[in-house]
């Protein structure tokens, strides 16, 4: 998390995050699965500087968004968090809280200190760690964690707020996470407020929507913050996913780059009827155009693990 990357013009402010894995065949003869994962993101501020080549940014931090990709034994774990930008009004960096939250989640996974069937426990334990810190990171964020059990071929998830994920099979969405909103544009969120500030909205980790669904080789799992879902409808996401040529890292990286780039283009189109604009109108607001926001997308292909050489 402490390393920095500098990309060229084409992929400036994008970061590739993947973990290719080898695994042996099951004792009963069924081959294990693995993920081929790539990620890409844009800061909302990147539009003002036109993605100048040579910009430096924190790994796995895109504006106020944060994410991680990790693995422990037969489990692949992915996470995203979207910081609440309103903290700038209090002179607080909104990226600090989601960044620290995702670091804490990743550390638990790396050490194996988690229940594979309970992603919400990863969120709860990490949040508690932040609350008990001597110098807690002030702020708020959504949180979404998925754990893929490659041996039992099951995806376990916990989603608090309006980030989320899709499971795509045969070109169709077979599962989508539940979005949680208190009211329009006010998602469920975890928060740590400074002493004396008692009006900040804060939900418990246990309020997260949880699910467990079977997955298969050939499935595509897409996880993202609302910067994607507010600007790109499911139908257009599926069209981009249909262009994936194979399950190689190169194909996955090209696909996730294209999805993030299209979402960013839509976000700054004032004449586009975005999903966000549709929801605003459903809530009695006259709104047209995309929603400028930070965008983080993690894209994974579920494939067979490589067999070990005899």
Q: What does the radius of gyration come to?
A: 19 Å
The span between the termini is: 37 Å
Overall 3D shape: globular
Structural class: alpha+beta
Binned strand content: 25-35%
Look at the structure and give the mean pLDDT: 87
Report the major sheet. 6 strands, antiparallel
Low-confidence stretches: 1-28, 49-57
The helix/strand order is EEHEEEEHHEEEEEEEEEEHHHHE
Number of helices: 7
Strands ordered across the widest β-sheet = 4-5-6-8-9-15
Number of strands: 17
Helix content: 10-25%
Pick out its properties.
310 residues, alpha+beta, 6-stranded antiparallel β-sheet, 5-stranded antiparallel β-sheet, 7 helices, 17 strands, disordered N terminus
Brief description of this entry?
Helix content is 23%, strand content 29%. It is α+β, with helices and mostly antiparallel strands. A hairpin with a 4-residue loop joins strand 8 and strand 9 (154-160).
Write up this protein.
The structure is a single chain. The two termini are 37 Å apart. Mean pLDDT is 87; it is low at 1-28 and 49-57. The protein is built from seven helices and 17 strands. It has helices at residues 46-49, 96-111, 119-131, 226-229, 234-241, 249-267, 275-282, and strands spanning 4-6, 33-42, 56-58, 61-62, 65-72, 75-82, 139-141, 143-149, 154-160, 164-169, 172-176, 181-183, 186-187, 190-192, 209-214, 220-224, 295-304. It is an alpha+beta fold and 310 residues long.
